[in-house]
Design a protein that fits this description.
There is one protein chain. This protein has one domain. The protein is about 60% helix and about 10% strand. The termini are close together. The protein is mainly alpha-helical.
Length: about 80
């Protein structure tokens, strides 16, 4: 089990996500992002804007995802 925060995953807060795989933690982050969008949380909306800009360039987005996957893989198991 590894832990990453919303901020580590491109978000705007220190909420922690715990998972065995990067894909699981990415899904938790995505769900959290949707919740924050529904509440129109300003900090998260700003982070989402940055992510939307990143998504305009598929290669940059893939590089970003891989960097986060490597960061997850490098974390110690809890």
């Amino acid at each position: 089990m590894k832990t990453m925060t919303c901020e580590q995953l491109g978000g705007a807060c220190d909420k922690e996500f715990h998972a065995e795989t990067f894909d699981e933690i990415a899904e938790q982050s995505k769900q959290h992002g949707m919740e924050m969008f529904q509440t129109q949380d300003e900090k998260h909306l700003g982070a989402m804007k940055s992510m939307m800009e990143l998504m305009q360039d598929p290669q940059k987005l893939q590089e970003w995802i891989e960097s986060k996957r490597k960061e997850f893989d490098a974390l110690p198991d809890e």
